[in-house]
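Throughout our pipeline, every protein is held as a single compact record rather than as scattered files. Nothing more is needed to write down the fold, since each code stands for a local backbone conformation. The record that follows is passed on verbatim for readers who wish to inspect the format.
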Amino acid sequence: MNLYPLRLEPQVKEVVWGGSWLAEELGRPANPSVKLGESWEAYSDSTIANGPLAGRKLGDLFKEDAARYFGEKSKIYPKFPLLVKFIDARENLSVQVHPDNFLAQQLENYPYGKTEFWYVMRAQPGAVICYGLNETAQNLDQLQKALSEQDLLRYLHKAPVREGDVVYLPAGTVHALTKGIVVYELQQDTDITYRLYDWGRVGREIHIEKGLKAIKMDNPNPEVTHPELEAKTGYASARLVESEFFTADLYSVQGRAELQAKPDSFNLLSVLEGRGTLEPTTSLFEDESLEKGQTLLIPSGLDFRLASTRAEKPLKIISGTIR
């Protein structure tokens, strides 16, 4: 069987802070009264929707032959390594922190911690996120006291965000996505979250002991960045993030963008805006249509071309992969 682009079925998550954007803008199924917060686009439990592998899960293919489907780099990972989401924060998410790999293995018997990044797709005027600790936070004892007194917010650094911003969140960084913001998120494939503060909501567990273990006081507060697109023939692109676990690039395609295969890795393509086609160049596969909100996995070794089919709006895609 020749390898081909794998179209993935999204999985939606109902949460207390979610809204209606995922249903209205991406067509995710939902009752009007349901609050959708997350659409999981690609992760180990994602189901393939097209071709001979339809019905199979990425995690099963990874166990079967990681190198064949995902490239030689994948062989160092114990399971599928990445997770892609769209997130709609109609209300504030909890103030939270994620463990690194070592702590996730120690506390949860899970191979991956959670380093992540956000690309801001929409932000209401004046939107501000909680992004790391401010200069008044000196030690964990201070934070423990603040947590017991429901006073953690005084120690958080606040950062304004707007559409097109990039927010990099290494494991151990205290943070909160706040209301009125929609993001694309690329992260390690884990759902381990330690809530520290939940804005007065009741009924959800707070993880003070584990959270304090996960906080890295020596994490430098990273800056919100706003990468500028570099013009190419038929398209423009920008490197959004480069971490020890993943990289991500933004493509804005007005005409066509011919992209070389990754011989030792895979690509996760997520469509943020526009409409187009995914076409083969030297590889053998059929054209795939591209619509807003879709995510496809491109197995290692497949050359492809992105073509926009809407003159009034460019095809806007993020491509994520392992480092």
Notes: The two ends are 27 Å apart (CA to CA).
